[in-house]
Design goal:
Blueprint lengths: L8 H25 L26 E5 L6 E3 L5 H12 L6 E6 L13 E3 L3 E15 L8 E5 L5 E6 L16 E5 L2 E2 L5 H9 L7 E8 L25 E4 L7 E4 L2 H18 L4 H11 L5 H12 L6 H15 L4
Parallel strand pairs: 1-5
Antiparallel strand pairs: 1-2, 3-5, 4-11, 5-10, 6-7, 8-9, 8-10, 11-12
Helix pairs in contact: 4-5, 4-7, 5-6
């Protein structure tokens, strides 16, 4: 074994002091070697302007037109979904709903719900009422009917021309759903298809219409409801509306004066050429044509979104001219 030399008390004290000084020096040098913390970036300036908030959920009030409590609906993007929401509220089948009017419980075609709903509008749903069969004999080429549809498979009468064949049949009313022609169901047919079928009925040969009228409250029974042509479906200028779309999500937008005037003019042309009125269809046509530079581009754009209609060329040229006239302030 190795022996350790004994140290005197003085030597032991000196060695301890020397070790302490060495430890301090080592700690001091290690402190200089440690990296310093990075500087924090300056605080961001406070945001200017109002914060953006998501648009609140749109809730609409609704009633059955012949009378009911008030319900609340939301979360729809097209007419079919709208009818389903109303049906759920009142515990009825969506197939019971013939059409809807805005802010009036009457069968008022000026108040008919089309492709747009004002954010403050109150929705009245007109449901199936009496079924009736009417025998009709054409004495001239036109019956005097203007047809529209509810966007969910039901075509119905929007206008009756005074003095026409149909006008002489007093049991036929504005708002009647055309359910069948000669026992052939036309449920699911578009309004232009129904108008074409009626136009093709031969003169002098009777045919049968099966009609379903909307259910009416007691104070409305017996009303034939004729509607003046002017200002039909007029949209209040500057009002925000919910635009319903058959494809894609509904959008909130403000209809400008050009679109309003052009849409009404196109709706008139639809009635003249095809015997139908449809503000949603007219709006789609205007949207397809408002930015086009020539009629060929317009026809191509229209065919891409509404090819099923097979519009005649003369109609397309008149529509193109009407849109141009509105743009240039001629009408």
């Amino acid at each position: 074994m190795q022996s350790r030399e004994a140290m005197s008390p003085q030597d032991s004290k000196a060695a301890g002091a020397e070790a302490m000084e060495g430890h301090k020096a080592q700690s001091h040098n290690r402190g200089h070697m440690e990296p310093t913390a990075p500087l924090l970036p300056p605080p961001s300036p406070p945001p200017t302007g109002l914060p953006e908030y998501p648009r609140p959920r749109l809730i609409f009030h609704t009633q059955l037109a012949h009378g009911s409590p008030t319900g609340r609906i939301h979360g729809f993007t097209n007419v079919k979904e709208l009818y389903a929401k109303i049906a759920d509220v009142f515990n009825i089948s969506h197939s019971e709903i013939l059409f809807c009017t805005l802010n009036s419980h009457k069968v008022d075609m000026q108040k008919l719900l089309g492709g747009q709903i004002g954010l403050e509008d109150f929705i009245f749903a007109h449901v199936r009422g009496e079924t009736k069969e009417v025998e009709v004999t054409k004495t001239e080429d036109a019956l005097g009917l203007t047809i529209t549809d509810n966007g969910a498979g039901y075509a119905f009468i929007k206008r009756i021309k005074e003095g026409s064949t149909i006008d002489r049949l007093k049991t036929v009313c504005v708002g009647d759903h055309i359910e069948a022609i000669n026992d052939q169901s036309i449920v699911g047919c578009r309004h232009y298809e129904v108008a074409k079928m009626l136009k093709e009925q031969p003169r002098g040969i009777p045919f049968t219409l099966r009609l379903v009228g909307p259910k009416r409250a007691f104070d409305m029974i017996g009303m034939r409801t004729k509607v003046p042509k002017s200002n039909e479906g007029k949209i209040v200028k500057g009002r925000e509306t919910l635009r319903l779309r058959s494809k894609g999500s509904a959008t909130v937008q403000e209809v400008n004066e050009f679109e309003e005037r052009a849409t009404m003019k196109v709706d008139d042309l639809l009635e003249s050429y095809m015997g139908i009125r449809d503000l949603e269809l007219a709006t789609t046509i205007v949207e397809a044509g408002k930015d086009k530079k020539n009629p060929d581009d317009f026809a191509e754009a229209l065919d891409s979104v509404l090819g099923d209609f097979a519009f005649p060329d003369v109609f397309l040229f008149d529509v193109w001219g009407a849109i141009g006239d509105v743009k240039n302030g001629r009408i």
